[in-house]
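Sanity check

After download, print the first record. It should look like this:
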Amino acid sequence: MSAPTRIFAAAAIVCGALLTAGHAQAEPVIFLSGMGGKCLDAEGGVREGARVIGYACHGQANQTFDHARSSSGPMRIGGLCVDAKGGAGRQGDELILWKCNGQKNQSWQWSGNRLVGVNNLCVDLKGGDGHWLGNQPAILWSCNGQKNQAWYWGKNLPATSVTGAVPVQPGQKFDIKPLPMASIVAGGAGNVVAAGAGNVIAVGSGRIVAGGAGN
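Expected structure tokens:
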């Protein structure tokens, strides 16, 4: 990698662990998976019947939902709601976008970095780490505390720049001091700042920083 002296970020996504909590009203949110690098996504765009999946984070409209942090209610996107398909709230039911109808299978609560829905089942990325690549369906599943059921409250930030980048060669280790909140950005296209404390910024196109402490 070359040694840039200035890095520009088209956008950065920061997680709710770093943000002030506690709004009862709905607000825009990007849900970052605890698996790292994936966000909740309306597959192929916002349309009725679209599957809700885990997909590489990019912060576009089909990954930006409206939801309330501190109360249960609908998760809206483009005039549609996230819906547990079929309405029965069974383990394994897929999540899709559907007309908002106020039913229990369209009510969600973000609590303890989980998204809990009908019959107290959790939003789960099917297959967990074993199926990280590709479009990973979001389903209802018994809450188990695994990272494919962890969802961090993310925000899309405006363009930001940082200076003084350090060149790092493949395989090279470099110790980095903790960064202040104001300087947490993702350099280059398609980069994501994911959930958890002590995350390090990845420089360059397509780099991803995964969730968890000390990354």
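If your output differs, re-run the checksum step. Summary of this record's structure: Residues 21-149 form a domain with the Trefoil (Acidic Fibroblast Growth Factor, subunit A) fold (CATH 2.80.10.50).
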